[in-house]
User: Fold this.
Amino acid sequence: MLNDSNIKKIKRKIIILGEGGVGKTTLLHRYVNKVFVDSTKMTIGTDFFIKKVDITLDNADKYQMTLLLWDFAGQERFRFILNEYIQGAEGIILAFDLSRVATLYRIKNWIGLLKEGGVWGDSKTKFFLLGTKKDLVTEDPSIISSDQIDEFKEKFNADSYFETSSQNGFGVEEFFNYLAKSLI
Assistant:
């Protein structure tokens, strides 16, 4: 941790959304606990993680950011409580499974819910498109084409797009470092 009296301490609320089974909980375990949890139980409603990160910007400003990471269940039966959790979120991660193209297209359903909740289009909230389970597509990278992802990203004005693998850690730190810096 940074040890300086000039460090600005801030908190940011992050919500991760996506269909059940896309790897949201596993991703957060990889990031927060540095472990790959092979079998997680279905999230009931929400789960919650906290991660403190030290950030030094190019201009030498220093921050200690506490990320409040809300893991929202992907199953439709829990969506009625989403509006309670998305209020006040500074960052929303829209996650899909790179090996299951349907999960990319179902992001539209999540965006619809965000619109209903008044969060979509809010300039205070950044949206991050995240492809998970990169390790499952190394043999067949055409499962979801980069054109499909680019089209989706452009259509819905995602602030960024990253690919990760919770299994081997690919891209996880890079994604969350980018997310944290972009929320300062």
